[in-house]
Each structure stands twice: as C-alpha cells, then as structure tokens.
Design a protein that fits this description.
globular; binds S-adenosylmethionine; single chain; three-stranded antiparallel sheet; Rossmann fold; alpha/beta; 10 strands; about 20% strand
C-alpha cells in the first residue's frame, strides 16, 4: 500500500515553528470545503499543520495568518492550488479493491459487448478522483487482458483529479518498483517495464487508453458521456451528504442505461440516491 507522504511527524503545539491558531485552522477547513467539497472535521489541526508547514518554510513566512492572507491575494492564486493539493489525501494502489476489476472484466464487459452490436464498439470508463493513476491503469490493464480485440474498439478511459500534481504523475505512468509488490507476476511482467533505478513505467499500450485531466468534481464538467462504468472510490468519504447527493445524481445522468458505478469500501449510497441498485461489494447499477 502506498504511504501518505503528505503527513510527516508533527511537533507538539509548543515546539511549533509557525503559529497556527484555531481561527487559522477553521479558515483553511472551510476554504477546503468550499473549493473541493472535502470536510476535514474539527480535529485535523496536526494534519493540516504538517502538510502546510513546508510551504510556509519555502515561502519564508512566519505564521499561518500570513500564509492565509497570501493565498487569498491575487499573487497567491497559484499557491492556492498547491494548498489544495497538499490537503487532499491521495492514498491509492494498483488493483485496490480488486473485485471491481474482476467485475469489470466479466459482467460489465459482457454486457458492454452485448450492447456493442447496436451501438458500435464504443467503451467509456471514467476514473473520478484517480489520484496518481493506479486506478485507471488497473482498469486499462483489465481491458487489455479481457479484450483481445480491443484494437477494433473505440475504447477510452478518462482519469480526473483535483490535485494537479497527481494528474501530472498519472500521465507519466512512472512508479516505484515497490508499487508492484503483491501483483500477479504475469501482469507485472507484461504491463510494466523497468524505468531507471527502482522505477517502472506502465507500457504504452495501457497509457494510450487513458486521458488524464484536472477536474473538480464539485465544479463544471466538460464531458457529455455516456460512460459505461464510473469508478469513484474513496473520494466522497470527506464530502457531506448534500454534496454527495448532487454528485451521484450527476454520475447517474452521465452513465449509460444499466451502466456501473464502483464506490469505495467505506462508502454507500443509502439515503443519498435511489437511481442505483446495489449489486453487492459496492458495485451499483444505474436504474433510473
Ligand atoms: C484517496 S484518493 C482515492 C484514489 C483512488 N480512487 C482509489 O480509490 O485508490 C482520493 C482522491 O480524490 C481526489 N479528490 C478529492 N476531492 C476532489 C474533488 N472535489 N474533485 C476531484 N478530485 C477530488 C483527491 O485529490 C485524491 O486524489
């Protein structure tokens, strides 16, 4: 499992290098909620401090108040993007919650193939909140393995995230060799090539299936769909119910009739929407 490198060990409040008041924390917390939909909860001071302290150091600032004033100013617009990148949680892994990829390779592709006769060989998958790309690459590898005739298809995967650094890393497709630990050797050997010291790169065949784009899930979406499958896993855990309601309604609008939505292990749609039917293991089918 990848580690959350954004949060280092945090000094106690007295030893802190930068002053960080409750008011500063509350400001950053509500700004994050407003810009990304992410709700931090009242007790994440230390996490926020640890993730932003290096930015203050780099900018030569002495207090969080100064930093907050800077990101609110015209000169601080670019830094605001960096703040948001630092405060999101990007933990991910190849073939995480593998039952979704198994479902994609079997049931989902079988149904998409059956429809393909009348609708042309079009296949669209969206990895929404893709982090550094392990999720969409797992989907691409799943397609390559399950569809020997993929070249005859118009198959595309859209991978989006609000964190611009994650989008950049995803488009490169370069990972530490350790990220392949636990992966079946036939997959690791066929779909990754070594790339300098202790690094691997996803093969071009899989990279070419994916477009990585910066996109805020609570902002405007340029794409029209329809998608056959949407992955939105481990993203909405920090969104409040109203934000989730709007988001899952928009997913239903963009999914093809009968399309599939995969959500994370600790997420559910109870009381959020009735436009999906739960098939089990956080696999949902659009029904309305
Ligand atoms: C924990 S990662 C999950 C990655 C992957 N889906 C998985 O399950 O392995 C959550 C991702 O959601 C992204 N995210 C959070 N809020 C977002 C928003 N409003 N719009 C787009 N992406 C967002 C974060 O930047 C982060 O990369």
């Amino acid at each position: 499992m990848a580690v959350d490198t954004k949060t280092a060990d945090t000094p106690s409040v007295e030893d802190r290098e930068f002053s960080f008041s409750t008011g500063d924390y509350d400001f950053l917390r509500s700004m994050l909620k407003e810009k990304t939909g992410i709700e931090l909860g009242p007790t994440k001071h230390n996490m926020v401090y640890a993730r932003l302290a290096k930015r203050l150091r780099k900018l030569g600032m002495k207090t969080f108040r100064q930093y907050i004033e800077f990101i609110g100013s015209a000169e601080g617009t670019a830094e605001l993007g960096t703040t948001l990148n630092a405060l999101t949680t990007n933990l991910t892994k190849f073939f995480r919650e593998n039952h979704h990829f198994e479902h994609l390779a079997t049931t989902a592709l079988q149904e998409i193939r059956a429809r393909a006769v009348s609708q042309g060989r079009r296949l669209r998958i969206w990895s929404a909140g893709c982090s550094s790309g392990e999720e969409p690459y797992s989907a691409a590898i799943t397609l390559l393995r399950a569809m020997p005739d993929i070249k005859q298809w118009d198959a595309k995967i859209l991978a989006t995230d609000i964190d611009t650094e994650m989008v950049r890393r995803g488009s490169e497709g370069i990972y530490p060799a350790s990220s392949l630990e636990g992966m079946a050797p036939d997959i690791a050997n066929k779909y990754f090539e070594s790339y300098g010291d202790d690094k691997v790169r996803v093969v071009a065949e899989a990279r070419n299936l994916i477009s990585f784009k910066h996109l805020n899930l609570i902002g405007n979406w340029p794409m029209k769909g329809p998608f056959d499958v949407i992955f939105c896993r481990n993203v909405v855990i920090y969104f409040d119910k109203d934000t989730q309601r709007v988001l899952f309604d928009r997913y239903a609008n963009l999914l093809a009739p009968g399309g599939f939505l995969y959500i994370g292990h600790s997420e559910n749609l109870f009381g959020i929407t009735e436009r999906f039917k739960l098939l089990g293991r956080n696999i949902h089918r659009k029904i309305a």
